[in-house]
Amino acid sequence: MSTIALYYPRMRFQSEDWLKLAMLTWDQVGRIRPRLAMDADSDLVRELAAESDFLFDLEPSERELDTVGRVFGEIVELGGASLRERFSVASAPQAPPQPHSAGLRARYPGLTWVYAGGAGRKMTHHLLLSLVDAELAIVQEQDGATHVGLHPAFARIYLTALADAVTENALLSPVTDELDVHSAVGTLDRLYELLLVKGTTRPAIGDVDHAYIHIAVEAVLRPVNIAEVPVRRLIDFRERHAAELAAFRKHVGSLAEELARIGAIENPVAAHAHLHSVYRTTTKPQLDELRRALHGFGLESGTGMLGLKVDLTGASGTVVGGFAAAAGQPVVAAAGLTLTIAPYVAGRLKARRTLREQSSVAYLLAVDRDLASRSLFKRC
Fold first, then answer.
1. Cα(70)–Cα(67) distance, rounded to whole angstroms?
2. Is the pTM of this model over 0.85?
């Protein structure tokens, strides 16, 4: 698991408290933000960007845009009326404009706007045209740049799929401050379900070959009354205790290797025993040391849960992390650690790639709907 994170699905951070926690959890946090973005940053974000290198912006590559655009385009071709029924721009909720809204967001308060023209665009021109033809998007110009207006639920799925592609290629850990959004890895595998299948339910676990293991471990420092903690003090703490924080992040990142071995056990109870041992002998002592260091800065703290997810069928033991609560069916819980298992749709990533090389449409049609997991997005 990378100690450098990618924030998704939005550009604008929704919670300043979350951002402060992120400063104690990740080495850096990036976001997909074009140079000509409409979003204005908060005062805290501007202060953090001016006084540290914690935040950085990146733009999707053409390869990443083509990957997401091709799959979305094929689903639009397949979905037709079903997609329009759920996600047409005409059916978008009529939300009142926010106080800070201006321009397109003020004129079309029910839509989510995605930058789609020029340097750093978030959508291919080909997909843009397909969405407009399908009545799933409208196109407007603002400040000399092209923006696409989408139904908010459709936009969330698209932007999360884009984050999926970017995190895979850039070796980043996807993180979010929206509790109803799960880790982005795997979203491209679930697009058929997310966009076209209504009312899917989570089945009972039949076998480990179609499951992710989710671990929620106390691996986040959480200052008391964090809303009142000045960001400057957290910057100073990061600078003073850079070595200790780096060692702890390295440990959390090394859990990927541990989980790869533990995943091969294929027994949740045994997996929990091994994970609890790692937590008790390594994670907790380092957390306690960092809490003492925070106390020296005049900040009392507790601990928070970091969600980790590993593909039990993946040979590489792929692991991602985030602040969203771990999802799935509870298996075992103990102090400092909760282990759950949840099914997933797509099967192995290697199989997905093989099918896509033959035909992306064939892959989408071959998805086993009976194994469809609960939608990642409660509002879809």
1. 6
2. no
Q: Is 239 helix (H, G, I), strand (E, B) or coil?
A: helix
What's residue 346's pLDDT?
A: 39
Q: Which run of H or of E encompasses 304?
A: strand 301-311
More confident residue, 206 or 1: 1
DSSP H helices, 90-185, are: 104-107, 125-133, 152-170
Q: How many other CB atoms are there within 10 angstroms of residue 119's CB atom?
A: 10
Q: Which two tokens stand for residue 75?
A: 């689903």
DSSP strand pairing (28-32 vs 4-7): parallel
Q: What is the CA radius of gyration of the chain?
A: 21
Q: Which residues contact 68 (CB under 8 A, 6 or more apart)?
A: 127, 158, 161, 162, 164, 165, 188
How many other C-beta atoms can be found within 10 angstroms of the C-beta atom of residue 123? 25
**Alpha carbon of 272 to those of 180, 304, 318: distances in Å?**
25, 19, 18
Phi/psi at 91 (5° precision): -95, 5
Does residue 96 have a cis bond before it (omega within 30 degrees)?
A: no
Residue 358, pLDDT above cutoff 70:
no
CA 255 – CA 65 distance, rounded (Å): 31
3-state DSSP assignment of residue 186: coil
Q: How far apart are CA 213 and CA 190, in angstroms?
A: 17
Lookup: tokens for 156: 């969330």
Residue in 126, 163, 164, 180 with CA at minimum distance from that of residue 148: 126
Q: Are 75 and 83 in contact (CB under 8 A)?
A: yes
Q: How many CB atoms lie within 10 A of CB 366?
A: 12
**Any idea how long the chain is?**
380
Give the pLDDT of residue 187: 58
Retrieve residue 275's tokens: 């994970």
Q: Name the residue among 51, 5, 18 with its Cα closest to residue 249.
A: 5
What are the beta bridge partners of residue 306?
A: 217
Residue 210: what pLDDT? 54
- Residue 361 · residue 76 · CB < 8 Å: no
Q: What pLDDT does 276 receive?
A: 84
The helix/strand/coil state of 101 is coil
Give the separation between CA 73 and CA 131, rounded to whole angstroms. 8
Mean predicted confidence (pLDDT) in 320-327: 44
More confident position, 368 or 343: 343
